[in-house]
Amino acid sequence: MNILIVSNESWRETNNGGNVLSNIFSSFEDANIAQIYCSGEQPENSVCQKYFQISDAMLVTKQKGRRLEEKDYSSSESDETSDIEGKLKERLTGFLREPALLAREFLWTLFNFRTPELETFIKEFKPDVIFAPCYSYYHVSKLALYVKSIADCPMISYISDDNYSIRQFRFSPSFWINRLITRKWIRRHFSQCSLVYTMTQLQKEEYEELFGIRMKVLCKAADFSEQIKEPQSPIKIIYAGGLYLNRWKILGKVAKALEVINQSHIKAQLHIYSASKLSEKQSEKLNDGRNSFLHGAVPYTQLKEKYDESDIAVHVESFDLKNRCITRLSFSTKIIDCMNSGCAILAIGPKSQAGIAYLKDNDAAVCINDTKSLLSTIDAFVSNPSLIKEYAQKANELGMKNHMKANIDKMLKEDFADVVNRLL
User: Fold this and answer.
1) Which of 11, 27, 292, 386 could bridge to 409 as Cys pair (CB 3.0-4.6 Å)?
2) In 10 A of CB 375, how many CB atoms?
3) H helix and E strand count, the chain
4) Cα 303 from Cα 292, distance rounded (Å)
5) SS3 content of the chain, % helix, strand, coil (to 5)
6) What DSSP character marks residue 78?
7) How far apart are the C-alpha atoms of 347 and 374, rounded to whole Å?
8) For 122-157, how does the pLDDT look when each residue is reduced to its tens digit (9 = 90+)?
9) Which tens digits make up the pLDDT trace of 365-391?
């Protein structure tokens, strides 16, 4: 089977999108896999060897995209367009983010990505099926639909966030212009799909009603095994992941609570591992050197060691209206990492948020749905080793029940085979 992936991000196992792709396709040993992607970064993974790269910078400099194979990107040579790509990325952060995102979409409309080189790459690879995740960037949907028109084969999609509904709290005109155009392209995208995966049951139900197409729930998988750890003293709490969407504020409240809990002696400490960039003031709230420690990102293999050394894994989602709307249907891939860590899970966020609700409904985490109870709940949790062991076991059992990699790999292979054979 030839599987052609069309995605926004480069396939790097150090970024979330690349990590998800590896999690999905690492079991397709007998398949030939290629990727067309829209990032300036070079790929770095153990699954795929063939790529066609079309980045923002390539469009600006009127390049026609380029093929990459393992021999091309294994060197440490820098990309000749990296300076331009870096400047474009800088514009996609902060208060200029929404206008910059809209400007990028017009860039993809202004410059033609439909080149003979891309068409040749698609025809030579001869895909049996296309896997094209759906983003809030509609140029990727445009690209996926063009690839399908050339390949003339079935397409599967995957949506992990609410990129479609208008249940958002934004004042930016640029956001709403982009959102309304994106909705049009998502409808076109999904209309050409034989199957669409979502990450939550709630999103599946909402989107099936909206689009009238076949959908299934697909979460990140892991190789779960029974794990029993004795809590240490002081209790080691770990958070690993992004600090955007005001997640840093919730972790700041956790750090502040630990400052109170640890007044007489140190009961628990919070260690944060993240690649997110924070201001000096923000960093100070997460790194006092006694109750909380802010570290940079670490490779996934090293992160697993950090989880092994910890007792409680924290998952947080923001409570403010804007970010509640953004993450309402999302299911963070970090939840599965927490389940597979052997740690108890402390989940802090709105009870209506899909990932938090999943943990609460399955009693797989100690959940805090109101920051007013944050101090008392954390104090009771870190002071009770038997409760930590109990919830570590519950998290592990839910992972083994619903997220075993062998079971999800089997489902994926059957789904792809059925789509290729036009049974779905």
Assistant:
1) 27
2) 17
3) 18, 14
4) 17
5) 45, 15, 35
6) P
7) 11
8) 999 999 999 999 998 899 999 999 999 999 999 999
9) 999 999 999 999 999 999 999 999 999
| Mean pLDDT (10-residue bins), the chain, 424 residues | 95 85 93 95 90 92 84 48 49 67 88 93 97 93 96 96 88 89 95 95 92 92 89 96 93 97 96 92 94 90 92 96 91 93 96 95 96 95 96 96 95 96 76
Compute the distance between CA of residue 371 and CA of residue 414 in angstroms, rounded to an integer: 44
DSSP letters, 166-210, are S------HHHHHHHHHHHHHHHHHHHT-SEEEESSHHHHHHHHHH
Q: State residue 197 phi and psi, 5-degree precision.
A: -95, 140
Contacting residues for 371 by C-beta, under 8 A, at least 6 apart: 250, 253, 319, 348
Q: Identify the three-state secondary structure at position 239.
A: strand
Domains of the chain, with CATH numbers?
Answer: 2-221+404-420 (3.40.50.2000), 235-402 (3.40.50.2000)
Residue 39 makes CB contacts below 8 A (sequence gap 6+) with 8, 9, 10, 53, 55
Residue among 390, 383, 329, 386 nearest 363 (CA): 390
